[in-house]
């Protein structure tokens, strides 16, 4: 990918409450020649977006004090040309549809790295040399594991209630949880 000079440097805004992920993404994008900004709240994200007009924004779906979809809506109102990607560890078709309706351009499951985010950005025609075969698609096992994690979180870690909601026997759910999460 061609490097932009200082005048043409692209900007990314990373909105996430997970400090480790936020810091890792900022570092990864800076190594790729991007100006990388980080925010931990809707107000901070809005202020930074107004000041810098980023080319790309990643927004965590679940923030402690704010729904990420509200942040997407606010950022879309500020700049219709910004490419917005929603990141979540609790993916579902319904939330993906909501994110797109509110202005997100892409929806991606965590953990996502800079290369995956850039692949989504490139696939929309924002950068040259995107190879569609390189865009990762999560495996069915990974999607199932993420769904189980979301339901378990909804029931505050109560395995019996989560198993009932998922239509599984409690022991079957425990076996699934004992396995490491599948890679993509």
Give a description of the structure.
The protein is α/β, with parallel strands linked by helices and 184 residues long. It has 2 domains: 6-134, Response regulator (Rossmann fold, 3-Layer(aba) Sandwich); 140-178, Homeodomain-like (Arc Repressor Mutant, subunit A). The chain has 8 helices and 5 strands. The protein has helices at residues 19-31, 42-52, 68-78, 93-101, 114-123, 140-154, 159-166, 170-178, and strands spanning 11-15, 35-39, 56-60, 83-88, 106-109. Helix 6 (140-154) crosses helix 7. The longest helix has 15 residues, at 140-154. The two termini are 24 Å apart. The model is unreliable at 1-7 and 127-132 (pLDDT under 50).
The portion of residues forming beta strands comes to 5-15%
Radius of gyration: 18 Å
Q: Flag low-confidence runs.
A: 1-7, 127-132
Structural class determined from secondary elements = alpha/beta
What is the CATH class name of the largest domain?
Answer: Alpha Beta
Helix-residue proportion: 40-55%
Spatial order of strands in the largest sheet? 2-1-3-4-5
User: What count of structural domains?
Assistant: 2
Q: Which geometry do the CA atoms define?
A: elongated
Question: How far apart, in Å, are the first and last alpha carbons?
Answer: 24 Å
| Main sheet specs | 5 strands, parallel
The overall pLDDT average reads 80
């Amino acid at each position: 990918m061609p490097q932009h000079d200082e005048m043409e440097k692209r900007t990314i805004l990373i909105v996430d409450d997970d400090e480790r992920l936020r810091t890792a993404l900022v570092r990864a994008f800076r190594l790729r020649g991007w100006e990388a900004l980080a925010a931990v709240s809707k107000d901070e994200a809005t202020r930074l977006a107004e000041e810098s007009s980023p080319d790309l924004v990643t927004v965590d779906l679940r923030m402690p004090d704010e729904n990420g979809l509200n942040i997407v809506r606010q950022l879309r109102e500020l700049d219709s040309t910004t490419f917005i990607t929603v990141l979540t560890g609790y993916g579902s078709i319904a939330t993906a549809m909501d994110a797109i309706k509110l202005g997100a351009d892409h929806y991606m499951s965590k953990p996502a790295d800079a290369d995956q985010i850039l692949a989504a950005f490139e696939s929309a025609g924002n950068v040259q040399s995107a190879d569609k075969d390189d865009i990762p698609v999560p495996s069915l096992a990974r999607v199932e594991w993420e769904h189980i994690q979301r339901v378990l979180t909804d029931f505050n870690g109560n395995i019996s209630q989560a198993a009932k909601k998922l239509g599984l026997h409690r022991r079957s759910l425990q076996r699934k949880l004992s396995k490491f999460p599948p890679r993509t």
